[in-house]
Amino acid sequence: MNKLVEKLIEVGCKITNPRLAVLKYLSVHHSPISARDLHKKIKAFDRASVYRTLNLFEELHLLNVEVIEKEKLYCFAEEPHHHIICKKCGYTEKTKCNHDFGTFKNFNDVYHQLTLTGVCNNCSK
Ligand SMILES: [Zn+2]
Ligand SMILES: [Zn+2]
Ligand SMILES: [Zn+2]
Fold first, then answer.
1. 8 and 57, same structural domain?
2. Which of 27, 29, 73 lies closest to 54, judged by CA?
3. Ligand 1 centroid vs 37 CA: distance in angstroms?
4. Both 59 and 91 in a single domain?
5. 63 C-alpha to center of ligand 3: Å?
6. Number of folded domains in the chain?
7. For the chain, does the N or the C end have fewer beta carbons within 10 angstroms?
């Protein structure tokens, strides 16, 4: 959390209340969340400032972004990782990304997205 605040200051971003609230929420909850749901959770700010904050963090590469059913979901990108999501209840776990894309000499800005789905132990009881 402090590291993230430092990083924002480092790149010349002002620490505003919506930015702090988004940082705080995402550093405590790891499940990927959409801008809409995040806005519902931290209520205090208008939706536009939550969206702007997420866009800014995305540009700064602070966030891991994946698109599921046409909705962008965000979580912190402490390290390259993927998620496995329970199809029935939405329970989510994180798994380390071991993909190595260092071999594409003809591409820059290589981006990949992978979401695993399954049925969690709770739901398959
Ligand atoms: Zn994540
Ligand atoms: Zn489940
Ligand atoms: Zn990967």
1. yes
2. 73
3. 16
4. no
5. 15
6. 2
7. C
The C-alpha atoms of residue 50 and residue 65 are separated, in whole angstroms, by: 15
As a whole number of angstroms, the distance between CA 47 and CA 38 comes to 9
Distance from Cα 85 to the centre of ligand 2, integer Å: 8
pTM over 0.90: no
Domain range for 23: 2-76
| Nearest-ligand number for the alpha carbon of 88 | 2
Tens digits of per-residue pLDDT, 50-101? Answer: 999 999 999 888 898 888 878 899 998 878 889 999 999 988 888 888 888 7
Q: Which ligand is nearest to the CA of 74?
A: 1
Question: Does residue 124 form part of some domain?
Answer: no
Q: Ligand 3 centroid vs 115 CA: distance in angstroms?
A: 9
Residue 27: helix, strand or coil by DSSP? Answer: helix
90 inside domain: yes
